[in-house]
Amino acid sequence: MWTKDRLDYLLRAASGFDDVMVCDSISVCVADRGGLKPLYSNWTRIDLKLIHENKLFNLERFLGLSKWTVQPMIPLSLVRHHGVMQPERDYAEDIEFLLRLLHKDVGMVIEEREMYLYRRGHDSISRNPQRASIFRHTLEKLLRELDLSEPEREALQSRIDGLEIQEQYLNFVGAMKRGNLARCMKSAAVEPRILAELLRRLPGTLNIRRHQLVDKLRYRKR
Question: What's this model's pTM, rounded to 2 decimal places?
Fold first, then answer.
């Protein structure tokens, strides 16, 4: 969902720049009383520091962000001029499209305001290990195909490495839910960073589960 003023705000934010995409922050939400309740913002302190330094991002600056989850408004003229087509997939197609445009020296203006509301559910496709694999393969393809600077290659490779851990973590969680403790122990022994990822994500996951349970109980009482 969008906030009511999102379109107008982003159009005004882009008015001082030529030929740019423009995006805002994503607010991760859960269902609550028939609507959405914000839980946390997409941007970390690292990201906000980069945005404060300069709102206009090129490819190298964008790759330096800790999170790439953005939903930009893109002028159709830029897409036509650079001939960049969005891949016909149902996952990771948007980030490939975005990175290819940035590689064409299309700038991106980033606003801090949270106007894009993303509903997080237990069955979100981003929590599927196969999707993490698709994302990783997409970035590996870009690493092979794009003529990148050394800092850009390092940033892209770092994200690929992180997706490998995410993929293993999601498989670990899946085995845990199925009660396959032997596989869990084997995975953790082979890749200890899985446990670190589990501890990092645990507070946020428990918070989301709590809100989902409260909303489900509230719905049953109706």
Answer: 0.83
